[in-house]
């Protein structure tokens, strides 16, 4: 059974700002990505970017879990959305997640600093 998960979605100049908190598990990670997908799909103004502040605690997902998650996102509507994934508590060796995202056709970067992520999201080269 999954532990508590807190998802806060708000407008951002580039589209959406999403803050997630809770226990880092595959179930919770799938849940917050499903919430992001739902928001992207139902937004009247289609977001060009998502600033994701990931404050999940505990052990990070394995490389295989990230790869499965990213593959499940393929073709779901995130291909036209730039994603800045911020891990303020440390990257936890999830750089491979960025590689899998790129292979799936997603424009995503992983950051430790929200300011750098915001700058890349709004002004970075595509």
What does this structure look like?
- This protein has a single domain (5-92, 109-123), classed as Transcription Regulator spoIIAA (2-Layer Sandwich), CATH 3.30.750.
- It is of the alpha/beta class.
- It has helices spanning 26-42, 63-73, 95-103, 114-123, and strands at residues 5-12, 15-23, 49-57, 82-86, 107-111.
- It is globular, with a radius of gyration of 13 Å.
- It contains four helices and five strands.
- The model has no long low-confidence stretch (mean pLDDT 86).
- A five-stranded mixed sheet has the order 1-2-3-4-5, with helices on both faces.
Outline:
Helix content is about 35%, strand content about 30%. With about 130 residues, the protein is an alpha/beta fold. The termini are far apart.
Task: Report strand %.
Answer: 25-35%
N-to-C span = 39 Å
User: Which word captures the global form?
Assistant: globular
Domain count: the total is 1
Report the biggest beta sheet as strand number plus sense, adding barrel if it closes: 5 strands, mixed
Approximate helicity band:
25-40%
Low-confidence stretches: none
Tell me, what is the CATH class? Alpha Beta
| Largest beta sheet: strand ordering | 1-2-3-4-5
Order of H and E elements: EEHEHEHEH
* CATH topology value: Transcription Regulator spoIIAA
Radius of gyration from CA coordinates: 13 Å
Number of helices: 4
Known CATH architecture: 2-Layer Sandwich
- Count the E strands: 5
The SS-based structural class is alpha/beta
């Amino acid at each position: 059974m999954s532990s508590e998960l807190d998802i806060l979605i708000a407008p951002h100049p580039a589209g959406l700002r999403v803050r997630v908190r809770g226990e880092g598990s595959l179930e919770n990670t799938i849940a917050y990505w499903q919430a992001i997908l739902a928001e992207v799909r139902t937004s009247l103004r289609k977001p060009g970017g998502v600033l994701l502040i990931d404050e999940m605690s505990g052990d990070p997902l394995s490389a295989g879990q990230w790869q499965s998650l990213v593959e499940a996102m393929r073709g779901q509507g995130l291909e036209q959305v730039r994603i800045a994934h911020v891990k303020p508590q440390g990257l936890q060796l999830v750089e491979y997640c960025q590689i899998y995202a790129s292979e799936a056709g997603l424009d995503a970067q992983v950051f430790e600093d929200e300011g750098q992520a915001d700058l890349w999201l709004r002004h970075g080269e595509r």
